[in-house]
Amino acid sequence: MFESKSHITVNPQGNLALGGVDLVKLVDRHSTPLYVYDEQRIRQRYREFKEAFEKYYGDVEVFYACKANSNLAILHILRQEEAGVDILSEGELYLTLLAGIRPEKIIFTGNNKTDKELEKALKVGVTINLDSLHELDRLIRITEREKLRAKVSFRVNPEVSPETHPYLSTGLKESKFGIHENVILDGYKKAKEAEFLDIVGIHMHIGSQITKTSPYEVATARLFDIIGRIKNNLGIELEFADLGGGVGIEYKEAQEIITPEDLAKAIVPIINEKIKEYSLKKPELIFEPGRFIVGDAGIMLTRVSTVKSTPYKKFIGCDSGFHVLLRPVIYSAYHEVIVANKPDEKPQEIVDIAGNVCESGDILARDRKLPTIEKGDVLAFLDSGAYGFIMASQYNSRPRPAEVLVSQEGAELIRQVEDFSSLIEKQLIPERLMKE
Ligand SMILES: Cc1ncc(COP(=O)(O)O)c(C=O)c1O
């Protein structure tokens, strides 16, 4: 029996439904693979995060990390919720502005920013979150040349293990991200002396899919000790402290997770203690959840094309692969798989779900006990709303899938499926190669 969640249920026809929309009927209308997102769930998760910190701290902003999923419809949902956005490229800046997010609600993080990106961010007026002293020097030069003021914060590397997948750890001492404590005050001093910079905050982001509060507790204490030193040594009071994203979601049943409320209960006392210790003006808190907001609101649907038994394994072959959902391959990530047209059928056999990419690593789920699966069955990969479509590619020359939003309005297409013309878009053939 499939255990229903608040937004994923089994409908009277016996099919899996997201936000009340029958997913089997949906793939009959659209093609597979297909990404589907539940609008109400996105709103609910955003509010859950914000309300938890409002309750325990007060002044808080949630800046959605749009790297998780930057579909314009999703950005519009978050704009309506009055979220801010954390961006890391000029492309994300373009999308967020297009969705009507105001520059004062945008923080530009990201490492290795180019001069072009810094100049663009400066001209638009978003907060620029500096990832190195080299970026600071280049930004100073650009502001002096353009005679424009920039709002800046610095990303600290707090040297903490978030106890997650190594590829999702971003605040280890060896990480490429952030500025280490030994030089962070030099950065703030230089920024204070710069004619066109306004120092507004400090930032950290220690990793992703974090399932314990302890790494946040250690990192938050370190961050606020740095804020204390910035005040005591340089006389700078910061407007905000941005604690990044990273709150994990329950990919696997009964997996250990933390809620925003758990996090708020764990770190707000530490913050209040540090505010007292250093007599700080209470800063606004910013969080940048991505996965928490959109992760479990999304499902990737794929149809079974081939069933293949070998002497060693049974493979269920589907019309999707790591070009559609990359996480299982790059992070060995687990996504729960439900047979959408028979979610309540008893699991019978252990199978691997094989993708259709011509690579032996393209296994989307390993050793899963599932009902007997046949050609034409629809497989639902749960929790695919974050780092799903956004990581899709055209590898093996397959057009990327469509995306659908479900809500009280029913199902609405929010991205058309690509066709073969998208495979040749922007390609050019030198005239000489066209000759016989
Ligand atoms: C700077 C920054 N903020 C926020 C996030 C969002 O992380 P998550 O989706 O785990 O909440 C990321 C993702 O790695 C990030 O790099």
Detailed description of the structure:
With 436 residues, the protein is of the alpha/beta class. It folds into two domains: 8-38 and 296-424, Lyase, Ornithine Decarboxylase, Chain A, domain 1, CATH 2.40.37; 109-289, TIM Barrel (Alpha-Beta Barrel). Helices cover 31% and strands 24% of the residues. The chain has 13 helices and 21 strands. The chain has helices at residues 23-29, 39-56, 72-80, 90-98, 115-124, 133-146, 181-193, 214-234, 260-277, 291-294, 327-330, 420-424, 431-434; strands spanning 8-10, 16-18, 21-22, 34-38, 60-65, 84-87, 106-108, 127-130, 150-157, 179-180, 197-203, 240-242, 284-287, 298-309, 314-318, 337-339, 349-354, 363-370, 378-381, 402-407, 410-415. The strands form three sheets. Strands 4, 14, 15, 16, 17, 18, 19, 20 and 21 form a nine-stranded mixed β-sheet that branches. Helix 7 crosses helix 8 (214-234). The longest helix has 21 residues, at 214-234. The chain is globular, with a radius of gyration of 23 Å. The termini are far apart. 47% of the residues are buried. The model has no long low-confidence stretch (mean pLDDT 96). The structure holds pyridoxal-5'-phosphate (PLP). The site of pyridoxal-5'-phosphate has 17 residues, from helix 10. Pyridoxal-5'-phosphate binds next to helix 10.
